[in-house]
Amino acid sequence: MDQIKTLRCASDKSISHRSAIFSSIASGKTTIKNYLFAQDTLNTLEAFKKLGVDIDIDKTKVTIKGTGKYLKESFDIINLGNSGTGIRLISAVCAGQSFLSILTGDNSLRNRPMKRIIEPLTQMGATILSRKNFLAPLAIFGKDKLKGINYASKIASAQVKSAVLIAGLYTDENVEFSEPQVSRNHTEIMLKQFGVDIISENNKVFLGKHRKLTGGFELNVPADISSCAFFMVMCALKPNCEAVFADCLINPTRTGILKVFSDMGVNYEIINKKTMCGEEVADILVKYSPNLKPFYIDGKILPTLIDEIPILSILALFANGKSILKDAKELRVKESDRIKSIVENLKKLGVKVEEFEDGFEIEPTKNIQKAYIETYFDHRITMSFSVLKALGYNLELSETKSPTTSYPNFFEHLKYLGS
Ligand SMILES: O=C(O)C1=C[C@@H](OP(=O)(O)O)[C@@H](O)[C@H](O)C1
Ligand SMILES: C=C(OP(=O)(O)O)C(=O)O
């Protein structure tokens, strides 16, 4: 048996975005330790610098002198790169400012749906112009006082929920949001830390009376379970592998993958629970797991593992039966159409896979063929197939730059765990 390795994977992307946004619109100087220095979350810091916030970045921490909720007009267009979270949450901040903001992103982001936030933010009183079909760039004419809203979202989306709650900080009227399943709740947890009254009841959230953010403390961002997932799967598939994933976020709105691991027979153990950033965190030990059952994933669990589907589709190749994914249409509007990206690439490996509008069925295979993988510049597709390649399969990837979006030292960690 090899020595047990410890890996502190990339910091949580969702929590990093929120820490930057809320520290910027709070009073006081807030320090963020273990901020994720990846392209998406660096773009969020750049956005707030453009909006007049004093932000200091050094190797270990970010210090943000909050301005309170009213910012300065940006001289320039704000570019959120590849980040759906960045553009959708910052649009909501801009909806509460009495000046014009223009938000854009890269080719992928300019093709992702923005109607989902344009609709509620417009109902709350902002004026938002977009390209045809509600696509970015977005021109946002905000108002310093918005209207209340009772918004029933048709999709479970933390980005939509967060947009409504953030815009809700700019009104004294009632703000209520509901969604079909509970999406990740980092906005609710962090707004509470900044002193905002917020009440969650099952799949509903309400803002209370107190909506002013008070910063001036230190936040410490845990490791991202969505980033750990790549190496947890690698460890499950690599003979003699045993690794501890340190400080991994285990917020129940994010741990669907652990439930799927249990169902499939992945050998893991939660060994050391703690709290960071108001969030549940733990060290997780994962071991080689040779007898895997297939997965069945549908709408109930999906929001809690939405970003882990690409790497779970790799795990499915080694199960002892057909894995099924349903109700996952949202995957078609991520950084790439992830259903298509997964299915097309698995077919190239010689895997029997059937594509549905909202998911797929994957047959395991003992004979993975040599293939050229088109990543569509989607970080999670690149990282998933890089794990498969590191397990000894003959793959060539169309690019290996995209992981900088969420996990800049991904390949270093891959080498460490693979060695
Ligand atoms: O709020 C967030 O930080 C995120 C929410 C999810 O998107 P949706 O809100 O579109 O489901 C997720 O896929 C994304 O990676 C991060
Ligand atoms: C979907 C993702 O992020 P975003 O929506 O913020 O671009 C992701 O990281 O997988």
Automatic annotation (TrEMBL):
GO molecular function: 3-phosphoshikimate 1-carboxyvinyltransferase activity
Top-level EC class as recorded in UniProt: transferase
Swiss-Prot/TrEMBL catalytic activity: 3-phosphoshikimate + phosphoenolpyruvate = 5-O-(1-carboxyvinyl)-3-phosphoshikimate + phosphate
Active site: D307
Gene3D superfamilies according to UniProt: Enolpyruvate transferase domain
Binding site for 3-phosphoshikimate: K13, S14, R18, S157, Q159, D307, K334
Pfam short name (any one): EPSP_synthase
EC number: 2.5.1.19
Entries under InterPro entries matching the protein: Enolpyruvate_Tfrase_dom, Enolpyruvate_Tfrase_sf, EPSP_synthase, EPSP_synthase_CS, RNA3'P_cycl/enolpyr_Trfase_a/b
Pathway in which this enzyme or protein is active: Metabolic intermediate biosynthesis; chorismate biosynthesis; chorismate from D-erythrose 4-phosphate and phosphoenolpyruvate: step 6/7
Keywords attached to this entry: Amino-acid biosynthesis, Aromatic amino acid biosynthesis, Cytoplasm, Transferase
Any one biological process term the GO annotation gives: aromatic amino acid family biosynthetic process
UniProt-listed CDD domains: EPSP_synthase
Annotated compartments: Cytoplasm
Binding-site residues, phosphoenolpyruvate: K13, G84, R112, Q159, R338, R380
Domain Enolpyruvate transferase: 6-414
GO cellular component: cytoplasm
Subunit structure: Monomer.
Family: Belongs to the EPSP synthase family.
Function noted in UniProt: Catalyzes the transfer of the enolpyruvyl moiety of phosphoenolpyruvate (PEP) to the 5-hydroxyl of shikimate-3-phosphate (S3P) to produce enolpyruvyl shikimate-3-phosphate and inorganic phosphate.
Full protein name: 3-phosphoshikimate 1-carboxyvinyltransferase
Annotated organism of origin: Desulfurella multipotens
Phylogenetic classification of the source organism: Bacteria, Pseudomonadati, Campylobacterota, Desulfurellia, Desulfurellales
Gene it is expressed from: aroA
